[in-house]
Amino acid sequence: MTGNRSWLIDLDTSVKSSVRFADDSVIRAKGSGKVLITRKDGKPVCIHNVLYVPTMRSNLLSLGQLLEKGYTMSLQKRNIEVYDEKQRLIIKAPLARNRTFKVNLNAVEIQCLAAEGGNEKEWL
């Protein structure tokens, strides 16, 4: 989940859902899209089905959803490591004081480019 609209690619605003937290509070998602992040080795990775929640101040990753998509995790020495299906490290983060993992993700902000077709002879 993210509240950062500029990170989302192909935002589908027809997707509406509610998210319930452990304290029973509920927030509303205003859509779903993809977020492109940069792996530790500098290569891009696309995270699909990211909920857009404008009121979110922090971004949340669901470990359960990552497991469903074939990622694996290792929890050792107060750290979490997340690996892709080829066992490449994509996320590593220490356990914070509030028992969450603070992950520094480098999201790629998408810029819109447009082109118009024309008569090929005009380009010669």
How many DSSP-defined strands? 9
Low-confidence stretches: 113-124
Overall radius of gyration: 18 Å
Major sheet, described briefly?
A: 4 strands, antiparallel
Q: Strand fraction band?
A: 35-45%
Shape: globular
Q: Average the pLDDT over all residues and give the rounded result.
A: 82
Order of helices and strands, N to C?
EEEEEHEEEE
Structural class estimated from helices and strands: mainly beta
**In angstroms, what separates the terminal alpha carbons?**
48 Å
Helix content: under 10%
Determine the number of helices (DSSP H or I, runs of at least 4 residues).
1
Structural account:
The chain is mainly beta and 124 residues long. The chain has one helix and nine strands, in the order βββββαββββ. It has one helix spanning 63-68, and strands at 8-12, 17-20, 26-29, 32-38, 44-51, 72-76, 79-83, 89-94, 106-107. The strands form three sheets. Strands 1, 4, 5 and 9 form a four-stranded antiparallel beta sheet that branches. β2 (17-20) and β3 form a beta hairpin. The chain is globular, with a radius of gyration of 18 Å. The N and C termini lie far apart (48 Å). The model is unreliable at 113-124 (pLDDT under 50).
